[in-house]
Amino acid sequence: MKLILAGIALAAGFAALPLITARNDLLNLGVQIFLSVVLAQSWNLLGGYAGQINLGHAAFFGLGALVTRMLWVSGVPLIPSLASGALTAMAFGCLIGVPAFRLRGAYFAIGTLGLAEILRITIGNLLPEISTIPAVALASYSIVPRYYLTLALAILCVAVVAALVPSRVGLGIRAVREDEAAAEASGVGAVRHKLLAFAVSTALAGLAGGAFAYYHVSYYPQHTFSPGWTFDAVLMSFIGGIGTVHGPVLGALFYVILKEVLAIRWVEFHLIIFGVLFILVVLFLPGGLVEAWDRARRLFRT
Amino acid sequence: MILTQQLILGVLVGGLYGLAAAGLSLTFGVLRVLNVAHGELLMLGGYGTFWLFTLWQIDPFLSLLGVGPAMFALGLLLYWALFQFVVKAHEEARIKNSLLIGFGLTLVLHALAIQFWTADERAVTTAYAGAVIRVGGFAIPLLRLSSLMFAFVILAALQLFLAKTRWGRAIRATAEDWEAAALMGIPVGRTYLLAFALGTALAGIAGGLVSISYSISPSIGIEWTLKALIVIVLAGLGSLFGSFAGGILLGLAEAMSVVFLGGPYREVVGLILFLMVLLVRPQGLFGARG
After folding, report:
1. Cα dihedral sign, A184-A185-A187-A188
2. What is the least distance, in Å, from the CA of A63 to any CA of chain B?
3. What residue segments make up the domains of chain B, in order of their start?
4. Quick check: ipTM above 0.85?
5. 3-class state of residue B213 by DSSP
């Protein structure tokens, strides 16, 4: 309950920000935070709750961006473009999910990594030119609608995961993570639940990609398929705390803000810090920041 | 004509794929950990050779005598600091945790390399860099041929070590069944340490050869990790020369794709092969054991 209230307060605070300030750098930082929340939370649904390490998350982000951008630039209204992007990502997810979930554990991870690389290289070859918003749209470009769109997506994404997790299906998904054989024996279809988590996860990643395509003025289509998006999602989820709803949100806030602070002096330096932090979390603090916070609180209570 | 020339180049680069894969297959096969930072270790070895050459003009092939042991030491350090915690878990958690730790290591090493050497592409350019042997109208770059032979010699030496020495036998026994090995009085922990360090040294030497005959940059890691994984999936675990042959097979497949599909799809062919094999053998590389 406290967490829900904290979440609402956080969202309200962010929603009020453009009313208080018109500083573009702050609003851009906001967009990055919201996109990161969607990326991390969508990864967390499959990685944290269903226990499947997807190292090809960028593929779905990229597909969403690609489809949304193409439709939107050619004149289709934004919302249908975004929906098409999300649906494409989800359809692709379901298509590869059926064979991919025959792979266990690490093989699923390296399989999805390989798949994303195939897409990245192919897209880079097919669409080598930079994609820029047409001049007409560029003239009326404003950061504020992008800010609210990505904020709304972040809220939607957190709400979807928060609603899914305690439901019957969510319990099934977690049961599969804990013990596939036991879940099957209790009548919980492992592949069905993994596929469901994957479908929602990829659709959300596709939405994030679509929002990125709406937000970014010009970029190379290949860029949205780069493994960096996957890596960001994995780092944020783990550092925040996988398998919790608030972990990835915390992780995204922490990651984006610290990255911004560090980037003033050292580009790329944040990856050294976050890489080390990530290793430490995997080895010694599997619950991430959320677990650290809980431990600290218990320490002070006694 | 073009095809044959490409196939020759394919065999030459394939030997390096094989060497890179042999290191990964050693750690994967013995420790049952999947170190996805293998490509980054290779990259570090490449920069080691590059440094020795640019700072002190040490011949790159000679410098491998220094880079190999240095990377061996780095392997000891990495095992001690990170991977010894991973091997305590049971098999499935071992692979998953090592994958995650390797992933973190990947990010750190990549970012460190950018800090140290910038993101530019580098290569060791020796006086004899452009030398070419001509055989019946085909050109064989001397450096790449020497690299291939060097890779083969290294693998042969390692094979001899595994076959003939006490520690080599310990490594093979542990790979086969670590519990039985432990019961026979083999110090499994130290065997793991040795195997991991050897794998790291192999990655470093492969990287040195890459910097001599091709080029290196901080971002080559993921590409080489994937190459090594592809070769392992194609050739299976457990045999160094199997990895070498698998590497050459991948080199040939890439060469064919360059001729028939064009250069840009070169990287895709191996990955598609990789996914196809994974789908046929979804249980993974250890058969039904996992």
Report:
1. negative
2. 18
3. 7-125+137-285
4. no
5. helix
CATH fold for domain B7-125+137-285: ABC transporter involved in vitamin B12 uptake, BtuC (1.10.3470)
Q: What is the pLDDT of residues A15-67, one digit of tens each?
A: 778 888 778 888 889 999 999 999 999 999 999 999 898 999 999 999 999 99
Q: In terms of CA atoms, which chain B residue is nearest residue A99?
A: B279
- CB-based contact A43:A233 (threshold 8 Å): yes
Q: DSSP string covering chain A, please?
A: -HHHHHHHHHHHHHHHHHHH---HHHHHHHHHHHHHHHHHHHHHIIIIIS----TTHHHHHHHHHHHHHHHHHTT--HHHHHHHHHHHHHHHHHHHHHHHTTS-THHHHHHHHHHHHHHHHHHHHH--SPEE--HHHHHT--HHHHHHHHHHHHHHHHHHHHHHTTSHHHHHHHHHHH-HHHHHHTT--HHHHHHHHHHHHHHHHHHHHHHHHHH-SEE-GGGGGSHHHHHHHHHHHHHH-TTSSHHHHHHHHHHHHHHHHHHTT-TTHHHHHHHHHHHHHHHH-TTHHHHHHHHHHHHHH-
For B95-133, the pLDDT digits (tens) are 888 888 998 999 899 888 888 888 788 888 777 777 788
Residues of chain B with a CB closer than 8 angstroms to some CB in chain A: 34, 36, 82, 85, 92, 95-97, 99-101, 103-108, 110-112, 114-115, 222, 226, 229, 264-265, 267-268, 271-272, 274-275, 278-279, 282-284, 290
Q: Please report residues of B whose CB lies closer than 8 A to that of A231.
A: 103, 107
The predicted model scores a pTM of 0.88
What lies within 8 Å, CB to CB, of B73 at 6+ separation is B197
Contact call for residues A222 and A123 (beta carbons, < 8 A): yes
Say how many CB pairs under 8 Å bridge A and B: 109
Token readout for A205 is 């990643």
